[in-house]
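Open question from group meeting: does this chain pack into something compact, or does most of it stay loose? Before anyone orders reagents, we agreed to write out a predicted structure and look at it together. Recording both the input and the output here so the notebook holds the full record.
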Amino acid sequence: MRDLIVGPDTPTPPYPILVEGTVVEGFGRGGKQLGIPTANLPSSVVDQALENIPIGVYYGWAQVQDDIVRPMVMSLGWNPYFKNEKRSGEVHIIHEFKDDFYGKNMKVAILAYIRAEKDYTSLEALVEDIQCDIRAAQESLKRAEYATVQNSSFFDQS
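Structure tokens returned:
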């Protein structure tokens, strides 16, 4: 079992990394095949704003349109289990939504790195690791310095 608290006690450079873009359709695997729906960042954000950070899994906060700010985990990479040919940024907002939100604006504050991208021998092993990532994000974001980013001026507060 991995540690549930990941990263230093306070976000340290280069974090937070703040990105924003319109949610685009991905491969349709997150919700359907994995049971872990993702909101995909446009390739322009992945190719430009996120080009200099390592491939892997991150955590932070995300907001879709004018909804509340929620915890998230993000996979940035090639998803070797699925043999992607294009690097993607897939954000799983830790909340159950009734509908998808393709075409809506999403803001993401990336606060820390969880782990490197891996290839998996089974779909079950992949899902199990993502569930560990989600638990680590939830616990890590409870720390005061991480929690304050949820209320930052980057997000639309209403």
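Observations to bring back to the group:
DSSP finds three helices and six strands in the chain.
The radius of gyration is 14 Å.
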